[in-house]
Write a structure and sequence with these properties.
- Helix content is about 80%, strand content about 0%.
Length: about 260
């Protein structure tokens, strides 16, 4: 198991697709910050780029980044016969599945830490400092996003393993990410209207509040609205469901 984990860690770091993903997204973060800085400077309307704005870039796109990372790694593992080779070498299906889960956590941590460090460096260079939040609130936001992304990557990995790594995993994985992103916007619009009181009631209100408080996809916004306990309950729930369902299905899955 430990040897498998080491091999998976090393393969993930050397994966050309992951390296390209990180390069492209790093350029996106840098480009976004530079463009915002240039626009605000040219407008000359008293606007300023604050650290709050810079630190939001990864939060707003993290769902897609970690989902794409898991798809790149595990779909290629199935396509290249790596999973089948592990089985032929005597590894148990449960060991292969759990190693993939642990590896997804490792990859997500690396991506989150590197992206957030890049944002911090850019904030120090180009921003006018913190404007609308405290240092503790910003730290909580970074931690919230990282923990949420870990649970999302575990869910995404479990889905890929249950589907046998076929290319439909791309459609399902990215489709789920887009759905929750759009649904999250709808939830925010209804629960936190810019004008007037909340107008939804009953079951719809309860569902929206549950999603906003407990579903990890809703916590990758950079605007913490609930406490750490709610975050941990929601993430733990998604992890338990993903691992339990994944183990059951993957153990019975016929691999091509």
């Amino acid at each position: 198991m430990l040897k498998m984990l080491y091999t998976d860690f090393r393969s993930a770091l050397l994966n050309r697709g992951i390296q390209i993903l990180m390069l492209v997204f790093s350029l996106y973060i840098v480009g976004y910050v530079l463009i915002m800085k240039i626009i605000m400077s040219l407008l000359d309307m008293g606007l300023a780029l604050h650290a709050d704005d810079v630190m939001m870039v990864y939060n707003e796109t993290s769902i897609f980044v970690v989902t794409a990372a898991t798809l790149i790694i595990y779909v290629s593992d199935f396509a290249n016969g790596i999973v089948r080779n592990k089985l032929c070498a005597g590894a148990k299906r449960s060991e292969i599945f759990l190693a993939a889960i642990v590896n997804s956590v490792f990859v997500t941590l690396v991506i989150s830490v590197l992206c957030q460090l890049l944002e911090m460096i850019l904030a120090l260079i180009f921003s006018e400092g913190i404007y609308n939040v405290t240092m503790s609130e910003m730290a909580f936001s970074l931690l919230e996003t990282t923990i949420s992304c870990i649970s999302i990557s575990i869910f995404s990995t479990a889905v890929i393993m249950m589907m046998g790594g076929n290319y439909a995993s791309y459609v399902v994985g990215l489709g789920v990410a887009f759905f929750f992103k759009i649904f999250g916007i709808e939830v925010m619009r209804n629960l936190y209207p810019e004008e007037g009181p909340v107008t939804i009631t009953g079951l719809k209100l309860a569902v929206y509040q549950f999603y906003d408080r407990y579903v990890p996809y809703s916590r990758c916004t950079g605007n913490p609205r609930w406490d750490m306990t709610s975050l941990l309950i929601g993430c733990a729930g998604l992890i338990v469901i993903s691992v339990a369902a994944g183990l059951i299905v993957f153990n019975k899955k016929e691999l091509k």
